[in-house]
Write a structure and sequence with these properties.
Layout lengths: L2 H8 L4 E3 H6 L4 H11 L2 E4 L2 E3 L7 H8 L4 E2 L1 H7 L11 E5 L5 H5 L3 E5 L1 H4 L3 E5 L5 E5 L1 H10 L6 H13 L5 H10 L3 H11 L1
Parallel strand pairs: 5-6
Antiparallel strand pairs: 1-3, 2-3, 4-5, 7-8
Helix pairs in contact: 8-9, 8-10, 10-11
C-alpha cells in the first residue's frame, strides 16, 4: 500500500490530522505533498479539511484543544435547549489552562477547579455529526441557574422549558450536580413547578 493510500485511509469524514498521520509512521513531508495535491485546507494547527468538507468549528476547536469542555450557551445549543445559535463560543477549562489564544479568537473561557471540572462531562454530537466534549444537559442547566445573571430572559426561560420537556432527563444526576454547584434549592423549585 502506498503512502498516499495510507493517508487516504486516515481521512476522517474529510478531515486529516497530522498526529494521526505521524502515528501511522508517515512523514510530515508526505502529508504536506498529499495536502497540496488534493487541495486540502489547513483550518488549525495539525488539522486539514478536504475541499468538499464544510468546517465544523466546534469539532476543530475541540480537536485543537482537547482539554476544553463546551459550556454555557454553546452547550445549550448542542443539547437543542435553545432555538438559536450561541452568540459566542463558551468553554470550560482546568484552572491551570492559559487560554490566551482562545481569548484572542473571542472565545469565552471559564476556568473550573479540579473537583468540578469533569462533573457532567460527556460527548455530544455537533450539527455535522462529530462528537465533542460538552457538559451534560443536567450540568448545563445547573450552571445556567447558578449564573442566571449572564443569560438574557428569553434564553433562560426557553432552555428551562425545553429541558423539562425532554424525556431523557436524569433527575438524580440533576440533583447531584445541583448540590455540587450550590443551586439545589433553586433546581428543586424548578422541578416542582415544571413537572
Amino acid at each position: 500500500m502506498s503512502k498516499y493510500e495510507l493517508i487516504e485511509e486516515l481521512n476522517q469524514d474529510g478531515y486529516l490530522f497530522t498526529a494521526d498521520v505521524v502515528n501511522a509512521g508517515i512523514s510530515k513531508s508526505w502529508l504536506a505533498q498529499y495536502v497540496k495535491d488534493k487541495g486540502y485546507e489547513r483550518v488549525a494547527h495539525g488539522i486539514y479539511i478536504s475541499p468538499e468538507t464544510w468546517p465544523d468549528e466546534l469539532f476543530i476547536l475541540n480537536r485543537s484543544y482537547p482539554n476544553i469542555i463546551f459550556a454555557g450557551e454553546t452547550a445549550l445549543y448542542l443539547h437543542l435547549l435553545v432555538d438559536r445559535e450561541y452568540s459566542n463560543i463558551t468553554v470550560c477549562a482546568p484552572s491551570n489552562f492559559s487560554g490566551q489564544r482562545l481569548r484572542e479568537k473571542g472565545i469565552i473561557i471559564h476556568r473550573e477547579r479540579e473537583a468540578l471540572y469533569d462533573l457532567g462531562k460527556t460527548q455530544v454530537e455537533t450539527n455535522y455529526g462529530h462528537l465533542v466534549n460538552a457538559y451534560s444537559m443536567e450540568r448545563t442547566i445547573c450552571d445556567m441557574v447558578k449564573n442566571r445573571k449572564i443569560y438574557d430572559v428569553q434564553t433562560y426561560q426557553t432552555a428551562l422549558k425545553e429541558f423539562f420537556r425532554k424525556r431523557n432527563v436524569d433527575y438524580s444526576k440533576l440533583l447531584e450536580y445541583a448540590t455540587a454547584l450550590n443551586v439545589k434549592e433553586d433546581i428543586e423549585k424548578y422541578i416542582e413547578v415544571m413537572i
